[in-house]
Amino acid sequence: MSVKAVGLFSGGLDSQLAARVLQLQGVEVELLHCITDPERFEGARVEEGASRLGAPLRALDVSEEFFEVVRSPRFGYGSGMNPCLDCRILMLRKAKALMEEAGARFVFTGEVLGQRPMSQHRGALRLVERESGLDGLLLRPLSAKLLPPTTPELEGWVDREGLYDFSGRSRKPQMALAKELGISEYPSPAGGCWLTDRTFSARLRDLFGHGGCFTREQAVLLRVGRHFRLSEGVKTIVGRNRDENALLLEHREGRWVVQVMDYPGPVVLVEGEPSEEDLLRAASVAVRYSDGRDREDVRVRWERDGEEGGAEGVCPADEEELSRWRL
Known about the structure:
alpha/beta, Rossmann fold, 12 helices, 37% helix
C-alpha cells in the first residue's frame, strides 16, 4: 500500500519540486492551494502546475479566515502588513485537515530554509509546525537534510538520502534540480506577498488606524487609485484611468461619488461620513486631476444613493494640500 501525503502548492518552482521529489520515491501526493484573495487567484497557473505533476489538486478559499488573520495576527507582521507566520499556520492547518480527510500520513511543503526572512528561518519553521498541530508530520523535502528528521523519514515512508539540503535565497540549486527532474515549465519568482507592498501597507495601516475593517472589498479598493485622508473619518480614492474609474463605480453603494461636470476627470469615491467641508475638499481633489484644473468655472457634483449636491467655481487642491492628505 503506497504512502499518501498532502502538499501545500503554489504552482511555483519549489512546490513543484517538492511534490516531484516525493513522487519519485513512490509517494502518492495530493495538492492543496489556499486562496487568500479570490481577486488575485491565478487558477490557470496553479492548475497547469498540478497537471504537469499528474497530481490531484484542491483549491480552497480561505479568504475570510485570512482577512481575520491580517486584522489581528498572533505573531505579528513582517516588513509590511504581512502576517507571514499566522498565514502559514492557517494554511498548514487546512493541509492537516485534508490529510486526515484523505487518509494521508503527512504534509509537505516547498519551503527552503532561509529563503524568506520572517517565515523560513529555523525557529519559524519549528513554530508553524507546532502551532499547526503537525509535530513530526511536516516534511520540507528541499531542506530536509538541514532539519531534524521527521516521522516520515524515521518511519521509512520516505528516504532521507533522497531529499535535499537547499538553503538561502538563490534559486540556482532548484533550477538545476528542475532540469534534472525534467521540470521545464515554471513561473518566474513572484514579487512577494502583496501585503509587503509599501503603498498598500501604508493604506492598510491607515484603515486600521481609523477604525476600518479589512474585508474582501477593502482588499480591492486599497490596491487601486490615489488615496487621500481628508479628515479623521473621511478618505477619498481617485481613479487614475478608465478601468479604475469603472471599478470605483462598482463600489459606490453607500459611498459618495464626486465628479467634475464639464471636463473629463476621475471618479472620486468618498469613504466615511463627510461634512460639507470634506466634500468640498474631495471636489478640489477631483478638479486637480481633471482637465479643468486650470479653469475658473469648474462645477463639481456629488451623489450618494440618490442624495445629491454640488458646488461651482471649485479650485483645484494645491500640492501642499495633496501632500498633506496623500496616503
